[in-house]
Amino acid sequence: MLVLLAGCAVGPDFHSPAAPTVGRYTEAELPDATGDAAGVSQRFRAQQAVPQDWWTLFASPRLDALVQQALAASPTLDAAQARLEQAIAAYQAEAGQQWPQVDANLAATREKISTPAPGDPPLRDFGPFTLYHAAIEVQYTLDLFGAERRALESLAAGSDYQRYQLEAARLSLAGNVVLTAIREAATAERLATTEALLAAQREQVDIAEHRQRQGGVSQAELLGQRALLAQTEASQPALRQQRAALRHQLAVYLGRAPGDGLPPLPRLDELRLPAGLPLTVPAELTRRRPDIRAAEALLAGATADVGVATANLYPRLTLSGSLGSDRLESSRLLEGFNIWSLGAGLAQPLFHGGTLRARQRGAEAALRAAEANYRQTVLGGLQQVADTLTALHGDAATLAARDRALADATGYRDIAARRLALGGVSRLALLDAERQKLQTALDALAARADRYADTAALLQALGGGWEAPPARP
Q1: Which of 24, 121, 180, 381 has its CA 20 to 30 A from that of 287?
Q2: How far does CA 173 lie from the centroid of its chain?
Q3: What are the b/e assignments for 398-419, b being 16+ CB within 10 Å?
């Protein structure tokens, strides 16, 4: 959106920073695919673009509906859109300063010419009279050293910044909705599994109490069973509170009050884990993340501000002219023009107490800060991708181990059930095997939810399918 105008403009010209030269995100080269877990090995496909609606990769209509509703109703996006419109209006207002400013002036004044003082030449004594004035006035300041052009560049960069901020807000909102929905679904399953675990533990305590009264188990064993039950019961309120907080947050993302309720939410088993994941190279990431493009726009604006501060040290040439009519009677104003003027003024700052030089130094310092902020934003984006890539490999390994533990615990429970049918073990032993199996299922559930969440985090970290608009002059 930067305006290209002919002529001299002092100060530095903006050039997009060089892309990162590093070839990978992590220090150690990672495999092209994660390990197999729950029957899925996620493969990273280089140079494949992230879909625009990247959340649809999870193949959940309920999740798609949540994200679309959030994008349509979020106050955060409404505020970002309004800030963009404000920035565009500021640019358009400044752009009007490139043209001559034409004003119509209409005035009426009551005047009197006093009698001359003693010793002055004789002058006719006029009584009070009304002078009517109508004129068209034109004024134009030549942009000799590019102050206006640099100011336009700064405002154009500001509107670009707000545009990228809007896109970053959309990407962040979509990612937050997906991650919160995944956590809510996982918490709901944890609550259901905990209920089953509590049922088994309560039965264990009942049996232990009965056997303790008959002398079959010791008081210590009974207290141990009660302690396990109490620990599980203590986890329930925290899980309910966590789920309620997640639902409240989802409501706010959707532009609703928490008390308004929510549409049907996806269950964890409804989500499909994407087997193929796009992975752009680090150099491409700087063009695909709106937060990095926003930092680049701030850098462009800071570069232009140095030009504005520099141009203010040089002369300003202003041309002016007017054509009008002065009459003693208002009815005669339109009889014709009887006054005109042409003028030119050249202003060169000489002494402002060091103000102009200080502003120039301040603009240069702001430019260095914007450069450092851009580098930090790029590094932060690279770190996010590196972290999620590493996490996905770890998630697959963790889930595979948790699934093996769950399979072993389930097999142990099944053996205990068969032995109980044959009279080889007690009901208490079967319940203990069931408890171990449910506890292991909770661990596997957490690992599965982490894998979904980190997949969504990677898609968001890669820019979420947002495509930078083509460069404008």
Answers
A1: 180
A2: 7
A3: bbbebbebbeebbebbeebeee
- Residue 136 CB burial class (10 angstroms; 0-12, 13-18, ≥19): middle
CA dist 158 → 12, 15, 94 (Å):
17, 16, 12
Q: Are 153 and 14 in contact (CB under 8 A)?
A: yes
Q: Which of 400, 386, 404 is nearest to 448 (CA)?
A: 400
CA distances from 232 to 228, 396, 427, 444 (A): 6, 27, 20, 17
Q: Tell how far CA 158 is from the center of its chain.
A: 16
CA 401 to chain CA centroid, Å, is 36
**What's the token pair of residue 434?**
């069931």
Give the closest residue to 408 by CA, choosing from 361, 444, 378: 444
The first and second tokens of residue 109, run together, are 């004044």
The CA distance from 304 to 295, in Å, is 14
At residue 10, φ and ψ (nearest 5 deg) are -75, 165
Reduced to 3 states (helix: H, G, I; strand: E, B; else coil), residue 276 is strand
What proportion of the chain, given as a percentage, has pLDDT over 90? 61
- 3-class secondary structure, 249: helix
**Residue 136: strand pairing partners:** 104, 323
What would the DSSP string read from start to end of 30-51? PPSBPPPBTTB--EEEETPPPP
Length of the chain: 473
Reading phi first (left if > 0) and then psi (alpha if -120 to 50, else beta), residue 371 is in alpha
Q: Which residues contact 136 (CB under 8 A, 6 or more apart)?
A: 102, 103, 104, 105, 322, 323, 324
pTM of this structure? 0.86
CA distance 149 to 94: 10
Task: Please report where in the chains the tokens 């509170």 appear, as a residue.
Answer: 241
Give Cα separations from 273 to 19, 270, 393 (angstroms): 32, 10, 14
How far apart are the C-alpha atoms of 60 and 58, rounded to whole Å? 6
Rounded Cα–Cα distance for residues 51 and 38 (Å)? 25
What are 67-109's pLDDT values in tens digits? 999 999 999 999 999 999 999 999 999 888 888 999 999 999 9
Q: What is the CA radius of gyration of the chain?
A: 37
Q: In the chain, how long is the greatest CA-to-CA distance?
A: 140
Identity of residue 103: D
Q: Is 68 helix (H, G, I), strand (E, B) or coil?
A: helix
Closest among 53, 455, 50 to 284, alpha carbons compared: 50
Q: Please write the tens of the pLDDT for every residue from 169-199.
A: 999 999 999 999 999 999 999 999 999 988 8
Residue 86's alpha-carbon distances to 89, 152, 162, 243, in angstroms, are: 5, 15, 9, 39
Place of tokens 């409240």: 248
Yes or no: say if 55 and 253 are a contact pair by the CB < 8 Å rule: no
Lookup: tokens for 73: 């109703």
